[in-house]
Each structure stands twice: as structure tokens, then as C-alpha cells.
């Protein structure tokens, strides 16, 4: 049950950090000046959290099984797995959006990577760290179970 609660918390944490990092990057670069209401942010965060929780379930299960096999519950392991998961989502989202872009009017990925990489990898790493904080029993080592 604790792992499920950690999964949900990490998905919401990743969604909040994704929206936050996106807004910081866009306000710093001046690429998308806009005013967004509280309810717009809330709806984006809830939508992203649900989407992440569905898409991250295979990675979540693989991370847990590999962590138990390696007998590790170190924070760096979960942070790294979250970052790898975020990187995977970056290329998955790029592939899906590229196949849907019929006019091919977008910039190539290498020209947008400085914006996309911190959003996806950063939010994945934060989600992995939040899972370590909320979903892992750190009082007992896995080898003692």
C-alpha cells in the first residue's frame, strides 16, 4: 500500500514540477509571455498527474522489481530511474507529436532540446525522489526482510 501511495505522490510531484519548470523556462527565455489562472495550472497538473500515473506504471513496476533484486533503496537509484523515465517520455512525446505534425513546421528536436530536456528529465528526477520519500520504507533494509 505504501508503494501505491508513493506512486501517486510521485506522479503529482512530477506533474507539479513539470508545470513549474516549464513556466520558469518560458518566463526566463521570454518565449511565451502569458497569464495563466490558478485553475488553468490546477487542471494542467491534474491532467498530467493522471497521464503520468498511467504511462509510468510499467517503469514503476520495473524500478521496484529491479530495486528489490539489487537490494537497494538508495535515493540516488530512484532519482536516476525517474530521470531515465523522464528522458524516455521526452522521446516518446517527440515521436508522437512529430507523427501528428503534418505540416512539419516545428523546429527540429536539437533546437528545442535546451527547453524540453530540463522539463522532462527534471520532473522525472523529482518524481523519483518523491517516490523515495513517500513510497519506500527506509527504516529497514531490503536485505533484512
Explained architecture:
This protein is mostly helical and 145 residues long. The chain has one domain. It contains five helices and no strands. It has helices spanning 2-29, 38-55, 57-70, 75-100, 109-135. The chain is globular.
What's the layout of helices and strands?
Layout (H helix, E strand, L loop, with lengths): L1 H28 L8 H18 L1 H14 L4 H26 L8 H27 L10
Helix pairs in contact: 1-2, 1-5, 4-5
What is the makeup of the main sheet? none
The number of strands is: 0
Gyration radius over CA: 17 Å
Q: Which spans have pLDDT < 50 for at least 5 consecutive residues?
A: 141-145
User: DSSP helix count?
Assistant: 5
Beta strand %: under 5%
Question: Overall mean pLDDT score?
Answer: 83
Q: How many domains make up the 3D coordinates?
A: 1
Instruction: Provide the structure class.
Output: mainly alpha
Helix fraction bin? over 70%
| Secondary-structure element pattern, one letter each | HHHHH
Distance between the termini: 17 Å
The coarse overall form would be globular
Gist of the model:
About 80% of the residues lie in helices and about 0% in strands. It has about 140 residues and is an all-alpha fold.
What features would you highlight for this structure?
145 residues; mainly alpha; 78% helix; 0% strand; globular
Amino acid at each position: 500500500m505504501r508503494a501505491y501511495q508513493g506512486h501517486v505522490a510521485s506522479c503529482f510531484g512530477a506533474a507539479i514540477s513539470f508545470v513549474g519548470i516549464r513556466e520558469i523556462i518560458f518566463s526566463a527565455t521570454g518565449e511565451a509571455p502569458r497569464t495563466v489562472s490558478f485553475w488553468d495550472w490546477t487542471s494542467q497538473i491534474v491532467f498530467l498527474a493522471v497521464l503520468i500515473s498511467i504511462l509510468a506504471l510499467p517503469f514503476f513496476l520495473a524500478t521496484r522489481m529491479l530495486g528489490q533484486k539489487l537490494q537497494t533503496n538508495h535515493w540516488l537509484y530512484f532519482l536516476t530511474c525517474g530521470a531515465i523515465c523522464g528522458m524516455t517520455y521526452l522521446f516518446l512525446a517527440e515521436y508522437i507529436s512529430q507523427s501528428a505534425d503534418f505540416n512539419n513546421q516545428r523546429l527540429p528536436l536539437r533546437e528545442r532540446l535546451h527547453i524540453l530536456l530540463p522539463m522532462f528529465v527534471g520532473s522525472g528526477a523529482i518524481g523519483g525522489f518523491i517516490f523515495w520519500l513517500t513510497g519506500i520504507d527506509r527504516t529497514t533494509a531490503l536485505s533484512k526482510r
